[in-house]
Amino acid sequence: MNIGEVSERSGLPAKTIRYYEDIALVRPLRSANGYRSFRESDIHKLAFLGRARALGFSIEDCRILLDLYEDKSRESAQVKAVAEGHLTEIDNKIAQLKSMRETLSQLIETCHGDHRPDCPILKDLSGNT
Amino acid sequence: MNIGEVSERSGLPAKTIRYYEDIALVRPLRSANGYRSFRESDIHKLAFLGRARALGFSIEDCRILLDLYEDKSRESAQVKAVAEGHLTEIDNKIAQLKSMRETLSQLIETCHGDHRPDCPILKDLSGNT
DNA sequence: CTTGAGCTTCTAGTCACTGGAACCTCCACA
DNA sequence: TGTGGAGGTTCCAGTGACTAGAAGCTCAAG
Lengths: 129, 129
Fold this sequence. Notes:
Cu(I)-responsive transcriptional regulator (chains A, B), DNA-binding transcription factor activity (chains A, B), about 130 residues, DNA-binding, Multidrug-efflux Transporter Regulator, Chain: A, Domain 2
């Protein structure tokens, strides 16, 4: 199967699929004309990658998860550890964003936002309390 | 004032300060020996940038905010608009992360995480329901 | 006069793609 | 048989906001 159809079926842009081959996440065969030739298992892998990326896993995490997926003697604890590490990162990011949000929304509230130049947002950024 | 002291006083790494000069966010003078020579106003700007970046504003937003800061005839509505745009982005990111978090934590809960290979996380990623 | 800290510039790497150029291949239709 | 266009190929460069590291210059203290 050619890359266009694989792109449709996996939901990933062709560029991304080529990139994933570049970094050896998938290894499609080649036809006589030089075109990539994807097997069902490649499409399956790509869809796996799409879902893992949608959950925010890094490419390196994806690589590990794919390896675990293909290792039938894996221990589920290994998978869980990767997922938990990622969950922690997500929690950290959420906490950071919430803290930014908090500060920012307070500043926005106190800014009258009209034609006058006086602005508590700039005041705060400039270090004035 | 040399970059080292400015780094300490502004809280920004020297590398970052040089980068900010590269992209013309600050324009320190130069001493006869070629060293950057920072005025108080440069330090002030850098501290401003540090705070704006800590609130998650992009470099381009920071550039706009700095310009507004220096434009004494600005309208506070302009500042507020930038801040509100950024707040919306933050909210979007938080929503996305929360949705990831939701899915991921549910998967983690159902994974027993022991020596057995059976794993609902991988099952889900592989498209099995 | 040496040593070491601190400064300079420059290049390249990060992450995960994405855009674009130049070129090749295939298939349908005239 | 020619042609046009869709779809494939590779390679290079850019994104954002730094960061690491190398090679070399300057300065102050001992």
